[in-house]
Specification:
This protein is α+β, with helices and mostly antiparallel strands. The chain contains twelve helices and five strands. The radius of gyration is 38 Å and the shape is elongated.
Length: 432
């Protein structure tokens, strides 16, 4: 009994009953159209007063409902939304968009027909049963008050035992109505995932969308590590150098503080752009990623202000490089210089060479090291991030120490798969 009452009258049961009533309301226009067909076909002028003809009109209208559900593309998303809210079905088990394939349209038509069919039946019962049940419950009181003098009752209802049992019959009728509504609501909730759920094509499209979103976010995480990691290394060295000569060389301290201000301001802008994309899941409105063509000089200037003596040899025209290659090459150079900042020491001499030979862009960073840098795991971290970028562009990476020097060498094809037609996001922000 403790489970029976909530099943009939609980919050979920009431919401499912409302869902069925909505189905009945949606069925009414189709019933009216069915009456226009049944009336002339049966040569009857009293379709509204004839229960068999009413049921026939209802049966004629349901196929029309199935046809309109196929023609109206928003049927599936609207029905899925109603099922989520009223039937308590997990939204992950239901499709989001319109039905596009023949299979999806067929299942949507079957669901719409089932919803309107059961909804019409329960709605009709909800209108007819309560007044009749109420009359049965009140029948003993009517007889006791002498109401039979004003209301003519069938002979069967005038018998004493019938009058005595009428309230029981009325209550049972109401319970039967609630049971039918609960059963139909549970049936719809059970069949909703099968008829309104995603098709294999929908699941594939959703998986591709999730994969693309994760790829974009992983790339942005690498961007965050590269830009912020480089900036923090530069700021740390600049602050350390300024502290050591605070009293001896005030001019150098002022230059170091100016460099720190410039570095942090630029990094805050990049950080805001990346976090904005991660927060909103959308690219518009964020700052474009830096490129080798537009931002290399600024990167070298900031690195030199950090205390490294960088000698750069650029035997290539960065503006002639594909946009994707220019963006990723900038990040590779930035990470290479950031590693030099961390491991080479203050005032170390760093050699940077960027050249194009045999259809490949070659980037070489050499610096003295006190110890071999550790290859840290994780996408986008340190040398692993450089290797990931190079591999995505079809290039190769070599890094290692020899004779007290650390050498990073990256070779990227200037013509590759990234020259395919790019999406709007890739055109502005680079590959995922």
């Amino acid at each position: 009994m403790s489970r029976f009452i909530p099943f009939l009258f609980g919050r979920r049961a009431r919401r499912r009953w409302l869902h069925l009533i909505i189905g009945g309301a949606l069925a009414m226009p189709y019933v009216f159209v069915g009456q226009l067909v049944v009336g002339p076909a049966t040569d009857s002028r009293y379709v509204f007063n004839d229960l068999p003809l009413q049921l026939l009109s209802f049966a004629v209208g349901l196929p029309l409902a199935a046809v309109t559900s196929v023609l109206f593309p928003l049927t599936r998303p609207l029905e899925a939304g109603a099922v989520r809210w009223l039937c308590g079905v997990d939204g992950d088990r239901l499709a989001d968009g319109p039905a596009r394939t023949r299979d999806a349209k067929g299942r949507t038509a079957a669901w719409f027909t089932l919803h309107l069919g059961l909804g019409g039946i329960i709605s009709g019962m909800s209108l007819a049963v309560p007044p009749f049940a109420g009359f049965l419950v009140a029948l003993p009181l009517i007889v006791w008050l002498g109401g039979t003098e004003f209301v003519e009752l069938p002979e069967a209802l005038e018998q004493t035992w019938v009058v005595a049992l009428a309230p029981v019959a009325g209550t049972a009728t109401l319970l039967a109505l609630a049971g039918c509504a609960a059963a139909c609501g549970a049936l719809l909730a059970r069949w909703a995932p099968a008829l309104l759920g995603p098709t294999p094509e929908d699941r594939l499209a959703a998986a591709e969308a999730r994969a693309a979103d994760l790829a974009v976010r992983n790339r942005l995480a690498r961007e965050l590590h590269d830009s912020v990691g480089h900036a923090l290394s530069a700021v740390t060295l600049q602050a350390s150098a300024a502290r050591r000569v605070l009293d001896a060389d005030p001019e150098f301290v002022r230059e170091a503080l100016a460099a720190i201000e410039d570095t942090t301001r630029r990094t805050v802008g990049e950080l805001d752009a990346v976090l904005g994309v991660l927060r909103d899941g959308d690219a518009p409105g964020t700052a474009p990623a830096p490129t080798l063509a537009a931002d290399l000089d600024c990167l070298l200037r900031r690195t030199r202000a950090s205390g490294l003596r960088v000698t750069a040899t650029v035997d290539a025209d960065p503006t002639a490089l594909p946009p994707v290659l220019s963006r990723e090459a900038y990040r590779i150079v930035q990470e290479g210089l950031s590693n030099a900042l961390k491991h080479a020491g203050d005032g170390a001499a760093v050699q940077l060479r960027i050249e194009v030979t045999d259809g490949h862009l070659e980037i070489t960073v050499e610096n003295p090291v006190a110890s071999t840098p550790e290859l840290r795991p994780g996408g986008g971290h340190g040398l692993r991030g450089i290797a990931d970028r190079a591999r995505l562009l079809g290039g190769t990476t070599r890094a290692g120490a020899a004779q007290g020097m650390w050498r990073l060498y990256v070779r990227l094809p200037t013509k590759g798969s990234y020259e395919r037609p790019r999406s709007a996001h890739e055109e502005r922000y680079g590959p995922a």
